[in-house]
């Protein structure tokens, strides 16, 4: 049986279990729950859930003996300061958007699957070069390998920001469907990694600690999950009282999870009512546009820049004015060390100190070491041995 069929089988079984659970609901349900009778059913659902999560993860991993392949993305090398992927159902206007915001022409047509491979373009934004990947449309079931879905999703997984292009004239569910496809391969949108510490050990059994009383987890659940994943010795510290079973599995599967910001872009607003447009525009992480009427494109580009959280750092040579003609682009959370790495591969080996002017400096200039965090617009002078 293939992985997809296995998944289907488990899903069907889960639906049946859920139904039984619903019919079993009776005045005595609570009492039975306490007695642990009802808990039996609940635990079956949990373990099926976990099995499902594991199978889905396998979809993107090369099949044993297949010699790899399957889950790899398109062969486009990364370039510029960051990578943004345009993900969406067919014919929502991904290629139209790429053509608008970069110098690259990507074929646009009214039929689905016009774009058949990844088309890279470069968005220039105040000194930064952002690689934009126009991708083929994906359909429901992409994660299971339908169409070029897996390749598209793998490409998206390598990006710093996902721009989910949506057709404003289509049902709102399209967004949830796409989110599910991305979730299935371990992409977590607009979320932080769960605040749970897990350290596998060689001996000593399991040590499970909660910082505050958990709402959705207990020691036994964690114990069972760890055992499922064949981790018999481990230290666990749950720092978030709202953490769920899924969160805990994400922590175990950390190497296969990717936390990526997502900007939802509704295109074709020329075809919807003003009231509906206003409703869409109020959604979080959302912008609306019409490529056709050239409306909102600037907002989309500004939001891409904001969501990438890149910083522009300017350098200053001793005795000269700062060079504002060219910015160094670093990621949010970067330090002077990252700035050095941007300037030259070996610069930090000769580093003595830096002088920093701007928002990150307590006083101007502040003398700092390599681990000083920089801020947008800082001016930096590096002094070497
Ligand atoms: N009404 C309207 N049509 C648009 C808009 N933007 C794009 N289109 C049309 O939508 C159709 C699909 O556009 P594409 O850019 O090819 O869409 P795509 O998402 O790249 O499609 P695939 O590559 O097939 O997945 C074309 O006929 C475009 O002219 C818009 O803002 N409004
Ligand atoms: K199209
Ligand atoms: Mg296209």
Automatic annotation (TrEMBL):
According to the UniProt entry, its GO molecular function terms are: GTP binding; GTPase activity
PROSITE patterns referenced in this protein's UniProt entry, alphabetically = G_OBG, GTP1_OBG, TGS
**Record's SUPFAM superfamilies?**
P-loop containing nucleoside triphosphate hydrolases, TGS-like
Q: Name one Pfam family in it.
A: MMR_HSR1
Q: Which InterPro entries match?
A: Beta-grasp_dom_sf (IPR012675), DRG (IPR045001), G_OBG (IPR031167), GTP-bd (IPR006073), GTP-binding_2 (IPR031662), GTP1-OBG_CS (IPR006074), P-loop_NTPase (IPR027417), Small_GTP-bd (IPR005225)
Please list the residue ranges annotated as the TGS domain: 309-384
Q: Which UniProt keywords apply?
A: GTP-binding, Nucleotide-binding
Please list the residue ranges annotated as the OBG-type G domain: 82-309
- Name its GO BP terms in alphabetical order: positive regulation of cellular response to amino acid starvation
PANTHER family this protein is in? DEVELOPMENTALLY-REGULATED GTP-BINDING PROTEIN 2 (PTHR43127)
- Descriptive protein name: GTP-binding protein
